[in-house]
Specification:
43% of the residues lie in helices and 22% in strands. It contains 13 helices and 16 strands. It has 2 domains: 5-226, P-loop containing nucleotide triphosphate hydrolases (Rossmann fold, 3-Layer(aba) Sandwich), CATH 3.40.50.300; 233-446, Beta-Lactamase (2-Layer Sandwich), CATH 3.30.450.40. The protein has helices spanning 49-56, 79-87, 104-115, 120-133, 149-161, 179-196, 227-247, 251-257, 260-279, 287-307, 346-354, 371-377, 413-446; strands spanning 5-16, 23-34, 38-42, 64-69, 72-73, 89-92, 167-171, 199-203, 215-220, 223-225, 310-319, 324-329, 340-342, 358-360, 384-390, 396-405. It is elongated and about 90 Å long. Strand 9 and strand 10 form a beta hairpin. By secondary structure, the chain is of the alpha+beta class. The strands form 3 sheets. A 6-stranded mixed sheet has the order 6-7-8-3-9-10, sandwiched between helices. The protein has a 6-stranded antiparallel sheet with strand order 13-12-11-16-15-14, with helices on both faces. The protein binds adenosine-5'-triphosphate and magnesium ion.
Length: 447
């Protein structure tokens, strides 16, 4: 089969219901999947993903169009042939369909018996090996009812993979698994695809596993859309989910409530989403995400000041064209107009210019310090810790600054290291905001 076309779908349409209730679910789907490819199917709930999978898996008869699997036409095929095709496919479906009276090991062995590949002691060993591989070494003798949903799902995965089928059809295989086991399962599938030339068609909403795909196809209202569309649609959804989550509670309240560990986790989470956003090719200009980041930036910076036990925290963005810094976040930001300082002037300016962190024990004794700022705000600066934030091209594009340690001591090397840890995710968020800005202005220019 290697190198050949494992799955070929031509003009496939599908309908559910009869008479007036008859409803079209799939519309003229055409796609070819070569042997050994991993294809991920994404799409909103109800878009027809499972229906498509069951048609390709010969679990449902094809009404209109052509579905060829491993060289066999399924449309109008007799039940004997459908059965034969099914035996060469490993299924991992939303409902696990484990046999309740059998143990985990026996369920997996059943997968081997159905395919007729191995018998007796060798079948048993293969089942044990596969269960160990999915992390169920301690649960071989458990029956389905004695296991959690995620564990049952792993048994179903082991059962589907144990006979090394030519095709694996998986519907949300990682849905009830934690991040690490989900990753292990898809890595295992990927190895299978690479080593045995197994073709894998995988439905998922899980953005963390999209990278295993050779190709991503997107179903929307029963129609297949192109790759680029799917990447964009997918990112939009990811950002929307994030936005929905955060909208339940204003981000500043959320940040204020969290303990230090929770705060650091949230920061990590949001910067990870930002990183994915930056890496994705999507040009989707997501306003919801943008507003989260902007709100977040204020909340995070203010909180950073607290976590670092400083009296004040602020953030400056570098405007390279005008060779100046723009104050983005500060407790006493003027209502109108923006605060700008020249690159090279003041401590923040010096940090931006040198690209090195600066610690100042006594501001008024440092010639780089500009007392004018204090005079305007009525604040009395003693010590300063300024950290340049660099983008992925190693250019300084922002400066984070702490003023006055609350205990009256100057900031020390320990503060600097801790601050640097916090500021890293902040940098990713800032960079994302900037790239969103670029996208916005590019759109503006072209329309
Ligand atoms: N046996 C059936 N009889 C009638 N309608 C059905 C049947 N199975 C699915 N449908 C309908 O077909 C449409 C597509 O369903 P399908 O299960 O393929 O969606 P899906 O993309 O897998 O969704 P999800 O992500 O929620 O699993 C839905 O509107 C669903 O209600
Ligand atoms: Mg489904």
């Amino acid at each position: 089969m290697a190198g050949g076309e494992s799955i070929q779908v031509r003009g496939l349409s599908h309908y559910f219901g009869k008479g007036a209730l008859r409803k079209q679910i799939l519309f003229d789907i055409t796609t070819t999947i070569p042997a050994g490819e991993i294809v991920i199917v994404t799409g909103p709930s109800g878009s027809g993903k499972t229906t498509l999978l069951t048609l390709i898996g010969a679990l449902r008869s094809t009404q209109e169009g052509s579905v060829k699997v491993l060289g066999q036409e399924l449309c109008q095929a007799r039940s004997g042939l459908l059965e034969k095709v099914r035996r060469q496919i490993g299924f991992i479906f939303q409902s696990h369909n484990l046999v309740a009276s059998l143990s985990a090991r026996q369920n997996v062995e059943l997968g081997l018996r159905v395919s007729g590949k191995l018998k007796g002691a060798r079948a048993r060993k293969a089942a044990v090996d596969m269960l160990e591989a999915v992390g169920l070494g301690q649960r071989m003798g458990h029956k389905p009812e004695q296991m959690s949903g995620g564990q049952r799902q792993r048994v179903a995965i082991a059962r589907a993979l144990v006979s090394e089928p030519s095709i694996v059809l998986a519907d949300e295989p990682t849905a009830s698994l934690d991040k690490q086991s989900g990753r292990e399962v898809v890595d295992r599938m990927k190895n299978l695809a690479r080593q045995q030339g197994t073709t894998i068609l995988l439905v998922t909403h899980d953005n963390r596993i999209l990278d295993v795909a050779d190709r991503i196809v997107h179903l929307e209202d029963g129609k297949l859309s192109t790759f680029t569309d799917s990447v964009i649609a997918d990112n939009r959804r990811m950002m929307q989910t994030l936005a929905d989550q955060r909208r339940k509670q204003p981000i500043d309240e959320l940040v204020a409530e969290l303990d230090d560990t929770g705060f650091q986790e949230l920061l990590g989470e949001i910067s990870e989403e930002s990183r994915q956003f930056l890496e994705a090719t999507a040009l989707a200009n997501d306003m919801a995400f943008r507003s989260i980041l902007e709100q977040g930036l204020f909340a995070f910076t203010a909180r950073l000041g607290q976590v670092m036990a400083a009296e004040r925290a602020s953030l400056f963005l570098v405007d390279a064209e005008r060779r100046s810094l723009v104050l983005k976040v500060a407790e006493d930001l003027p209502q109108s107009g923006e605060v700008r300082i020249d690159i090279g002037s003041g401590i923040a300016g010096a940090a931006a210019q040198s690209g090195e962190p600066i610690r100042v024990e006594d501001a008024y004794a440092d010639r780089r310090f500009n007392p004018e700022v204090d005079r305007q705000s009525g604040f009395r600066t003693r010590s300063i810790l300024a950290l340049p934030i660099k983008n992925r091209d190693k250019q300084v594009f922002a400066v984070a600054q702490l003023l006055n340690r609350q205990d009256g001591e100057p900031f020390d090397a320990g503060d600097e290291a801790r601050f640097a840890d916090f500021v890293k995710p902040l940098g990713v968020i800032l960079e994302t905001l900037q790239s969103l800005d670029r996208i916005t202005s590019a759109h503006g220019a072209s329309s």
